[in-house]
Design a protein that fits this description.
Layout: E1 2-10, E2 13-18, E3 21-29, H1 32-41, E4 47-51, H2 52-57, H3 63-72, E5 77-80, H4 86-94, E6 99-102, H5 104-108, H6 110-119, E7 124-131, E8 134-137, E9 142-147, H7 148-157, E10 162-167, H8 179-188, E11 193-196, H9 202-209, E12 216-219, H10 221-225, H11 230-237
Parallel strand pairs: 1-4, 1-12, 4-5, 5-6, 6-7, 7-10, 10-11, 11-12
Antiparallel strand pairs: 1-2, 2-3, 7-8, 8-9
Helix pairs in contact: 1-3, 9-11
């Protein structure tokens, strides 16, 4: 299992939201590229970037920052938030983004996912955000009728390279991940699953490591709040 630091971009700054609420914003840095370099310096092997303006409006507003981050670091980056067209995916991939994360449009336009996976094989991850086991979309403002696990299976069948699974109730709350829901998701699909949401302390990383075949975990607020040390967490997953 790998530990993946998150950089959430809003108005060009590195921020975190509480439970995805756009009015509950904490700004951590005015220089996202410097933050990215810091995480790489501590051993990060993959960086998770979310354009929050894109997630809420459907139109990405932080392309310039993503470009600067891409130039600043030499590890793979995955980007999500407001990616709702093949053209936008193409733009990001041409900038050197290694994988794109599709959320809302996967639920709203499943045909697009199929086309995207055919056009960009191995580069399309589907972000599944669940509230009470159901898929939530549009920056978590709308809950659909799709069951998260059934939806993940369909996305896998359509060619998704992996699933990023978030339990909304736990995200940004530092309350610990929903281990039971995560284990069910991992055992339901064969593509890599990355856990997201709720990591508060090193013990949460230890608990997630017990889930067989969990590929990775994204952590954001815990790193910025100082309740998880990235170097220690990476060392733990590598058996150091």
């Amino acid at each position: 299992m790998i530990v993946i630091p998150a950089i959430d971009l809003k108005d060009g700054k590195c921020v975190r939201l509480l439970q995805g609420k756009k009015e509950e914003v904490t700004v951590y840095s005015d220089d996202p590229a410097a933050m990215a370099k810091q995480w790489v310096g501590l051993g990060a092997e993959l960086l998770h970037i979310v354009d929050l303006d894109g997630a809420f409006t459907g139109e990405q507003k932080n392309l310039e920052e993503i470009k600067v981050i891409r130039k600043a670091i030499d590890i793979p980056i995955e980007v999500g938030g407001g990616i709702r067209s093949l053209e936008r995916m193409e733009t990001l991939i041409s900038l050197g983004v290694d994988s794109v994360i599709i959320g809302t449009s996967a639920a709203k336009n499943p045909d697009m996912i199929k086309k995207a996976c055919e056009k960009f094989p191995g580069k399309v991850f589907v972000g599944i955000d669940a509230k009470d086991g159901m898929v939530a979309i549009r920056g978590w403002e709308e809950v659909t009728e799709f069951h998260a696990i059934e939806f993940a299976k369909k996305m896998q069948d359509d060619g998704a390279a992996g699933i990023i699974y978030t339990d909304i109730e736990r995200d940004g709350m530092l309350s610990g991940p929903n281990l039971e829901a995560m284990a069910k998701m991992v055992s339901s699909v064969s593509v890599p699953v990355i856990a997201s949401g709720g990591v508060a302390k090193i013990n949460d990383i230890k608990n997630l490591m017990q889930i067989k075949n969990l590929w990775g975990v994204i952590t954001g607020k815990a790193l910025y709040a100082g309740t998880v040390d990235l170097k220690e967490a990476i060392g733990l997953t590598k058996g150091n």
